[in-house]
Every structure is written in structure tokens, then in C-alpha cells.
Amino acid sequence: MQTSLEDKYAHQIIPFAWPKGYSSDGVHAGLREDRNDMGWIFSEVPAQAAGTYTTNQFQAAPTKLTKNTINQDHKLQAVIMNSANANSCTGKQGDEDALTSQKLVADKLNIDANLVGVASTGIIGEMLPMDIIKKGISELKLTDNKEVTTAILTTDKHAKTISVQLDIDGTPVTISGFCKGSGMIHPKMATMLGFVVTDAKVQDGLLQEMLSKEVDTTFNQITVDGDTSTNDMVVTMANGLANNAEITKSSSDYSNFVEAFHAVLAELAKDIASDGEGATKLVEVNVKNAANHDDAQKVSKAIVGSNLVKSAIFGEDPNWGRIVAAIGQTDAKVDIDHTSIWLNKLPLVENSHGAGFDEAEMKNALSSNKITILVDLNSGSSEGQAWGCDLTYNYVRINASYSS
């Protein structure tokens, strides 16, 4: 199966830090009562840029604007972000407000507006209080602090960050990422914002291909509650200031860079899943011996997305029938007589029958704050992976009063 970040040999985790040429800030502008609610990140030079975006039909104004901006020439130099207000379902005025935010940042930084991305998250359907947005932009500075990572949080319990470093042809390169996401998580994409920046020099056009592929096996393989939002995006920037030999598909270090890039996205995705609203357990599902990669991916995500499976894990109930039912609801090829399942390495199902496990031992395994389910479909040789969390009473409490 895919390995964890710590198992990767080509790169190492370092304390969270911006790569060369990046700065940021976060401030309390007044969108929230008592915490940071606006921030930005800036590159000294225009950077190669790529993005992936929500597939929700009600795509928010800032999401549409950033997508259109990146699609022009695949470059960004700054991204302005706010929490508390999604600027979604706000009509023409919402579009104008996103454009105003973009221009205000461009004017302050003395750069072209087409180099500024805009990201918002929060309540849907309320107009942006532009007086507060203007105030926040005026207060932002170019610093090396990490306050932008807290400025985008909504119901998240903590900031989600990761940095790794690797050598490209003998030159140290850093990849750093941060994100937010806790509820409305069922990406292709969901209420999550993700930003990954690097000082690596990457061939024109390659970054988008890389991001799209790696998002499919990371952020698009997490689910908290099955709901997709209107604002979600993952944006990545590569400014080239590490001065490494340009990364191309034929580079000797290409696979190492992709591996490190994937690891950053995977760790952020898992952090979102484990921080799901009200969650007490991270759930990882690994599928092996599937007929093809798509089958492996859909089965793994069906299991982490099943409310019955999620509820059973919260209740620490080894009801394996719920896992089997989730598998069977997909159209994946399954050997229905020879499917096996393990939970935290303990046999749960063997050849589609209960494994006769020790109840006390299984109950103890289910008390862990990370539950790993391994499924053998016995139908091929492909693998897949997905992450989610348990479904708790607290999830209902949080979402019953979200807008109040």
C-alpha cells in the first residue's frame, strides 16, 4: 500500500517554513469576533500556478475568479484569503466584490491584478462586508509569520501545515502546504482550501498536470460528511527561486519531486479527515487486489463515506456487515465469496465470512484514535486508499447551529 510520509526516503519533514521568496500575514479584520479572519501569501516573483476547484454547480465568486485568473497564463504572485464569509450565491455583486479584493491587493503590492488569486470560506449567501475586507487588506504586511494558516479556519480545531525538503540535482528545495477543512468534506472538491507553495523550478505546464493527478489520490479521497461545498480549491505555486535544475518529466529527480509533492497533499488530506467536525477517530481504508485503480479508489471511499460504518466506528462496534454492505453498493468488481477484511491488522472477515475474532481484542482495537481497515477484493492487483472519520453526536450539534 501507499506509505506514510515518514517512510519516504527522498525527502524529510522539516518544521513548517516558507520556501525561498514567500512571505505572508494574517490579521483579525473583524469578520469574526476574536480571531484571525484575513490573510495572504506573496511570492517575490510571479510563480508558476495551478489549481483544482469544487465541482459544485454553485461555484462561489472567488473560486470562479481564481480559476479564470490561473487559466489565463498559469501564473500567480499572491493569494488573498478570508474566513467567516464564503461570498457564494451572492450574484453580480459578489463577483464585483471578489474583483475589488483582487484589485486592492494588486494595488497594494504593485503587481498586476491577473497575478492575484482570491479565496473565501464561511457562510454561504451573505454579502461580503467590503468595509471590513478593505480594512483587512490595508493591515496586511509582508512577514515570515504563519498567521495566514489560522486566518482561513472555520470549525477547524487547529491549523493544518506541513513542510518537506529534498534535493533536486544537489540543490535543496522546499515544499510547504497548509489547508483548512472540517465539515462539508467530500471532495471533488469540498469546504476546504488548500495551498501548496514551493521554491522549485518546474517546467511550464507540468504543475497543473501534477496537481490534478495528485489531488485525485489525496484530497479527492477524503470524506467527512458526503457534502461538497461551493468554495473549495487547491492552489499551488512554484516560484523557481531555489535555482534548481528545471524539473521536467525526463529529469532524474522528477519522481522524487512528485513523491514529495504527493506526500504533502496526503498529509494535509489526512489532517482534514482527522479534524472532521466532532470527530474522535481518523479512519484509513486501504484496498488491495482490486480489478483496477478506479475500483480500489471507489471502494475505499465508499467505506469511509458510509454513515453506518462511521457510526459503528464511533460506537466501537465491530459490525463488519456494514463494511461489506458499503463495498457491495459500488459497481466495483468483487469476488463475493473470497473478500477479506482486517481492522487494525486483526482479521475481521475471511473469505466473506466472519473471522471469528475475539470480541475483547477487537473492542480494544476500535478504541484507538486511528482505525485502519484493509480490504482484499481478490479481483486483481490494484490498490487504493481513502481517509475519513467517525460520525459523532458532536457533528450534529456543530451543524445544527452553524449559522447562529
UniProtKB/TrEMBL annotation:
It catalyses: L-glutamate + acetyl-CoA = N-acetyl-L-glutamate + CoA + H(+); N(2)-acetyl-L-ornithine + L-glutamate = N-acetyl-L-glutamate + L-ornithine. Keywords: Acyltransferase, Amino-acid biosynthesis, Arginine biosynthesis, Autocatalytic cleavage, Cytoplasm, Multifunctional enzyme, Transferase. The keyword Amino-acid biosynthesis applies. InterPro entries: Arg_biosynth_ArgJ, ArgJ-like_dom_sf, ArgJ_beta_C. The active site is at T191. Catalyzes two activities which are involved in the cyclic version of arginine biosynthesis: the synthesis of N-acetylglutamate from glutamate and acetyl-CoA as the acetyl donor, and of ornithine by transacetylation between N(2)-acetylornithine and glutamate. NCBIfam families: ArgJ, PRK05388.1. This is Arginine biosynthesis bifunctional protein ArgJ.
